[in-house]
UniProtKB/TrEMBL annotation:
This protein's name: DNA polymerase III subunit alpha
Gene Ontology CC annotation, any one: cytoplasm
Enzyme class: transferase
Alphabetized UniProt keyword annotations: DNA replication, DNA-directed DNA polymerase, Nucleotidyltransferase, Transferase
InterPro entries associated with the record: DNA_pol3_alpha_NTPase_dom, DNA_pol3_alpha_thumb_dom, DNA_pol3_finger, DnaE2/DnaE/PolC, DNAPol_HHH, NA-bd_OB_tRNA, PHP_dom, Pol/His_phosphatase_N
E.C. numbers: 2.7.7.7
Start and end residues of each stretch annotated as Disordered: 1106-1155
Source lineage: unclassified sequences, metagenomes, ecological metagenomes
Organism of provenance: marine metagenome
NCBIfam families in UniProt: polc, PRK05673.1
Catalytic activity line of the entry: DNA(n) + a 2'-deoxyribonucleoside 5'-triphosphate = DNA(n+1) + diphosphate
Length: 1238
């Protein structure tokens, strides 16, 4: 009988990478099976509870919210690795009280009891027992393990304790899955115990997927979770296919001998009655002064702010304020606004730079409260877009703070409102199209070369689904038709695509509640892993909003941190106390710079496409910037040229109807903002602004039935106002597609102001601004490199790091000529960081500059200056005043040893002698005499600096010669753009990251990077060119090339057609000097800048090349990235491994036995791709292979990084032979060299 059984033990996809069941699928399957209820019991969490509840209610089936909890073997706060792993327990909420106790129980498990798993214990089970139903659990339960171990006394004690606490709400759980150790014995024992104790039994089926045929997909998810593959016989897996939602008849067939255990599931379901209400709001009450309501206090604050903002406000402003306050009072959101005021009062008092994005900038109330900085009346923003009396939704204020101070704001909220009342919000990462391919391929043990190739065929559309990718990509469709492995991989990837992969903390969302949060939501520890971090809700944003909690977005914005740092540097260098909010908004110099394309480091305007549009637009007002920011996105983008041409009078301005002229004239007849849609609906269709906002939302959702009703309403209103049906249809059809993708004006204006502020400071305080940009980019060598190159273009000198002159961050100095220069920050050096450098800078500032190496050793703590830090600082020139870099590196062991000895002496109080005599005589120290002569080459220093700084500060002879090239030779990577596709160009640079690939016909070709002055461009050397010049393409070679620019899926490359080695004019004669980038104007600048004084031929003078370009398809590289190798893999040679730079380049072909070693090792030589994620996958697969072929031959892994070859003595010994060779080829493709050497 279908309705005589209910599934009470079910795992969804929120049992991360263990459950495969999607919530809606679970619910609909239970409905199909005719079952009256279904429970959700994910592992240790309630992530899916609200979505599950709503899905079940919508489907007309009873939801039972529960959890498969973990019970500690002892107190929950005990962290004893010797104790047994926690027991499993099935917990169900019976009613509202039970649900709220479940929230507290699960929260305590995470916050108080987390140790490998979130653990509850008997103490809190008893404390929160009311309203909960307990099933004794699976074979991993306390009862199951005692029975399995033959300890029936402990089993009896267990059921006695639970029986006493939970009374008739405690059931002995049984399930039947093949291959589970002791399953039959456990069931038999439970039957006997039930007879002895009169405790009822209930059978469950531990479901992890919805239908039997889903077992393969669930198995793949398990492999992904456990980092194993389907070929591994020792991997964790569910051995049979019974873990699905079975029908009642299937369960009855299995349990014919225990019908009451089946009907008890129905009895349990019938006793559960949980009602959750949604749509309420639980806004924390702000503590107002005595005898003042929150509305009275809000009004008082607003009028106080009004006078501060306006002095004598106009009648229009006064009416607007009263209108907004009236709506706030009617919607009962006064406390919400007071909380926002309170937060920003703290922010403003602390000098934390902030901004508000989104429609909140349209509120005069928030402007008066100094939450926003934009006058909504002057900017012509209307309140209904933010808060609508007819929509009655909680207003949403997205707050931007300088990203280096966001945590201060969160900490204030915790301190002010209480730790139990403030949390961040969880978010879930899902398997996207590319990740599904890569993870599934690894789980299926398919070659990484295959998954790499297929992943690169996925179009770069945001959030694209595999089904959509197959429809869009002919290349992918052909590969699926051609190859059976590809078909199998894509089919399985489509099944797991979209599955929840991991939980993390949302980048912005914060929730604040009046009552303790566990009254409304379950909590867990922050995924940051920091003990002092605020907890995270287990519900994501939408369920948090559904249960009525106040959600705010605290976003960290790097550009605000840059502005904050910039004004502080201005104060330090000039004495001017600039206020970001106070800069003039009509600075002609700023708008002129923007019109010339000076957008590097400018918020929202940095991209190549945006820079081009801004140059064409030549903005003259903030409104111009706002319109371009709104238009530069999919959909409106097609109207950019119309907007620009109309602004400059080169095109006539047209309107869909003359009555809409006033609404569209400010944007030259182009529909730019969602606000205009609302105003058109009001003016043309007779809507109120509140109704128009509802129309806008309906248009965005594009629900046909709703759209049809709104279209009819619009036409009716238009007819009443005297327009024809044809006119009404024309206007509606103009609005409908735009409303879904348009920006609201307040958001665009907010962004425009930040863009303008960044442009203003860059234009008027260039040195301070670039230094601030560099500070923000610290820790990201690529971005640091871009900023240094921008400084060079602006003739701002950037000096290398110096142990005596640099601060932790980037600073500004004055050179001997009185010019401001930027000094590289020590903490910005790779492998260093602020935690190492800050103590060193403090010592230097307290005791003066370091006199010599001995002085450094005497004063600096070994905890700050370890070997890795010191080596990195030496290589980038921070110690140049104390010796040549090569000599310093040779002496590094003595330096480290001396520092460590001095640190120990200081800590023991023995750093000075004759203290009894009142003298302070420094303890004797080994002299560290280092020659100031440097035997390193320019090229070595350049490579070190590029790696550790992101940019070279040493100018090699080649760099100097590149700067002297004629304009038709490309030396800046930024000159290669998608617009050049199909044209011929010449370039000069240095070869690196050479990757040998194979065409479908088996011919070898190369993909490589050519390093130019500001970054790399990609080159492809096809087989016919490679045959002509095979020896040219060695890492480090300087080459001159010419070829055709090609674009594929947004990636630009040059297909090489001619090439030759470039001979340095002054080779062998250049002095070894380390100098910072000069103030000399470079003869070549980036395309798009300084055209008036420095014409470029890059875009106008094609290179004529006679060689035809082959059309062979590009294959995929094989690689390993040594950066992906963790310290746990490489350490001392006895237990782990060591790494050293190889002294010669190795062969690059894929033939076996090409590499020999006299030490009898098994060598594997691979090349890195530059894709860190892919390289990490390759490394992990190699490690597993080495473990699988355990033997007696030591393993050496040689990795070609493109700049050097790194040799790693791996902590493995293998059994070499044809099987290992075959598996290497199968796993990694034939681009790996492996050989037994002797």
């Amino acid at each position: 009988v279908p309705d005589q059984f209910v599934h009470l033990h079910n795992h969804s996809e929120y049992s991360l990478l263990d459950g495969f069941s999607r919530l809606d699928d679970m619910v609909m399957r239970a409905v199909e099976l005719g079952q009256p209820a279904i429970a959700l019991t994910d592992h240790g969490n309630l992530h899916g509870a609200i979505d599950f509840f709503q899905s079940a209610k919508k489907a007309g089936i009873k939801p039972i919210i529960g959890v498969e909890g973990y019970v500690a073997d002892g107190p929950r706060d005990e962290r004893n690795p010797q104790k047994r792993s926690p027991f499993h327990l099935t917990v169900l909420s019976q009613n509202r009280v039970g649900y709220q106790n479940l929230l507290k129980l699960v929260s305590a498990s995470h916050i108080e009891g987390f140790y490998q798993r979130p653990r509850m214990d008997r103490e809190i089970l008893e404390k929160y027992s009311e309203g909960l139903i307990i099933l004794s659990g699976c074979p991993s339960s306390e009862l199951g393990r005692y029975i399995n171990n033959g300890d029936l006394d402990a089993a009896r004690e267990t059921i006695e304790w639970y029986g006493n606490i939970f009374q008739d709400r405690y059931y002995l759980e049984m399930m039947m899955h093949q291959h589970v150790p002791g399953q039959v014995d456990i069931n038999n024992a439970i039957i006997e115990l039930s007879k002895q104790t009169n405790l009822p039994m209930a059978v469950t089926n531990d479901s992890h997927y919805v239908r039997r045929e889903d077992f393969e997909a669930q198995d793949i998810l398990t492999c992904i979770q456990t980092n194993s593959n389907v070929r591994d016989p020792k991997r964790f897996r569910m051995e049979d296919t019974s873990y699905y939602l079975k029908s009642a008849s299937e369960m009855q067939e299995e349990w014919t001998h225990l019908p009451e255990a089946l009907t008890n599931t129905l009895k349990i379901a019938e006793s559960c009655e949980l009602n959750l209400t949604f749509g309420q709001t639980f806004i924390p009450r702000y503590s107002t002064p005595i005898n003042k309501s929150s509305m009275d206090y809000l009004r008082e604050l607003c009028y106080k702010g009004l006078n501060k903002r306006y002095g004598k406000p106009s009648e229009q402003v006064l009416k607007r304020l009263e209108y907004e306050l009236g709506i706030i009072e009617e919607t009962k959101f006064s406390d919400y606004f007071l909380v926002c005021w309170d937060i920003f009062n703290f922010v403003n008092e602390r000098g934390i730079l902030s901004a508000v994005r989104g429609s909140a900038a349209a509120s005069l109330v928030l402007y008066c409260l100094e939450v926003t900085q934009i006058d909504p009346v002057e900017a012509d923003l209307f309140f209904e877009r933010f808060l609508n009396i007819e929509r009655r939704e909680m207003p949403d204020i997205d707050m931007d703070f300088a990203d280096n101070r966001r945590e201060e704001v969160i900490k204030y909220c915790i301190d002010h409102y209480g730790r139990e009342h403030v949390a961040q919000i969880v978010t879930f990462g899902t398997l996207g199209a590319k990740a599904a391919i890569r993870d599934t391929a690894r789980a299926l043990a398919l070659p990484l070369s295959l998954s790499d190739k297929l992943a690169k065929m996925i179009p770069p559309t945001l959030n694209i689904k595999l089904k959509e990718a197959i429809a869009e990509s002919a290349e992918l469709r052909n590969e699926i038709k051609r190859d059976s492995n590809t078909r199998d991989l894509i089919n399985m990837a489509q099944k797991v695509e979209g599955s929840v992969r991991h939980a993390s903390t949302h980048a912005a969302a914060v929730v604040i509640s009046e009552k303790p949060l566990t009254e409304h939501v379950p909590l867990q520890r922050s995924t940051s892993g920091k003990d002092n971090s605020s907890p995270t809700t287990q519900y994501s944003m939408h369920p948090v909003a559904d249960v009525g909690l106040l959600k705010m977005d605290f976003l960290g914005l790097a550009n605000l941190a840059i502005l904050d740092r910039c004004v502080k540097l201005i104060a330090e260098t000039t004495g001017e106390n600039m206020g970001v909010y106070d800069v003039p908004i009509d600075d002609k110099k700023t708008f002129q710079a923007l019109g010339e394309g000076e957008t590097f480091g400018v918020f929202q305007l940095e991209s190549t496409g945006m820079r081009r549009n801004i140059k064409e637009l030549k903005p003259t007002t903030i409104n111009d910037l706002a319109a371009m920011i709104a238009l530069y996105r999919p959909g409106p983008m097609e109207h950019i040229s119309t907007f620009i041409e109309a602004k400059h009078g080169r095109a006539a301005i047209t309107y869909p109807h003359d009555d809409l002229r006033d609404l569209l004239e400010p944007t030259y007849g182009v529909l730019v903002y969602q606000d205009q849609v609302m105003l058109i609906a009001q003016a043309f269709g007779g809507y109120t602004l509140g109704e128009a906002d509802i129309l806008r939302k309906a248009m965005g959702k594009k629900i046909p039935s709703v759209m049809e009703a709104e279209h009819e309403k619009f036409n009716t209103g238009a007819l009443k106002k005297g327009y024809t049906k044809e006119q009404a249809n024309t206007v509606f059809e103009l609005m409908a597609p735009f409303a879904g993708y348009g920006f609201n004006k307040a958001h665009a204006i907010s962004y425009a102001y930040i863009a303008y502020w960044t442009a203003y400071f860059k234009t008027n305080y260039s040195t301070e601004y670039i230094a601030a940009v560099l500070d923000s980019a610290s820790g990201n060598p690529e971005k640091v490199g871009e900023a240094v190159r921008e400084a060079t273009r602006l003739n701002i000198s950037v000096k290398p790091p110096s142990i005596n002159h640099s601060g932790s961050g980037f600073t500004i100095e004055t050179d001997t000529d009185g010019n401001d220069i930027i000094r590289f920050g020590l903490a910005a050096v790779k492998n260093v960081g602020a935690s190492a450098i800050d103590p060193i800078v403090e010592v230097r500032e307290a005791g003066g500059p370091f006199k010599d190496l001995e002085d450094i050793c005497r004063r600096v703590d070994s905890k700050s200056l370890n070997r890795r830090t010191l080596e990195s600082l030496i290589r980038v020139g921070a110690f140049d005043e104390f010796g040549g870099r090569g000599n310093l590196l040779e002496t590094i062991d003595r330096i480290i040893s001396t520092i460590q000895r001095q640190t120990k002496l200081r800590e023991s109080g023995q750093t000075s002698m004759f203290d009894m005599l009142g003298e302070s005589v420094p303890a004797p120290m080994v002299q560290l005499e280092i020659s100031t002569d440097d035997d390193t080459t320019d090229q070595e220093r350049v490579i070190w600096e590029r790696d550790l700084l992101g940019v070279e500060l040493t100018q090699s002879p080649f760099t100097r010669e590149m700067r002297q090239q004629p304009n038709n030779i490309i030396v800046f990577s930024s000159d290669i753009t998608t617009e050049l596709a199909g044209q011929k160009r010449a370039a000069l640079g240095q070869v690196n990251n050479v990757r040998e690939l194979t065409t479908k016909r088996g011919d070898k070709f190369l993909s490589l990077n050519l390093t130019l002055l500001d970054g790399d461009i990609e080159l492809v050397v096809w087989p016919n060119i490679l045959e002509q010049i095979p020896d040219l393409w060695q890492n480090g070679n300087f080459v001159s090339i010419a070829g055709e620019v090609r674009e594929r899926m947004g990636r630009v490359s040059i297909s090489v057609e001619t090439a030759h080695e470039y001979q340095l004019k002054a080779e062998g004669q250049a002095e070894h000097e380390s100098e910072s980038i000069k103030n000399e104007p470079a003869p070549i600048t980036r395309a798009g800048f300084n055209e008036a004084s420095q014409p470029r031929a890059v875009l106008n003078d094609p290179i004529q090349i006679t060689h035809p370009s082959p059309m062979a398809k590009q294959a995929n590289p094989l690689s390993l990235n040594p950066d992906a190798i963790t310290d746990s893999l490489i350490s001392d040679p006895d237990s782990k491994g060591t790494a050293e730079d190889a002294t010669t380049n190795l062969p690059t072909d894929a033939e076996e036995n090409d590499i020999t070693d006299n030490n009898g090792h098994f060598l594997v030589h691979v090349k890195e791709t530059g894709d860190i994620a892919d390289d990490r996958y390759r490394l992990e697969d190699l490690m597993r292979l080495f473990v699988e072929f355990d033997g007696s031959d030591p393993v050496i892994l040689e990795i070609d990084t493109g700049k050097k070859v790194v040799r790693l003595n791996m902590p493995f010994k293998v059994r070499s032979g044809t099987k290992l060779t075959s598996r290497l080829n199968e796993l990694l493709g034939n681009n790996v060299v492996h050989s037994k050497t002797s």
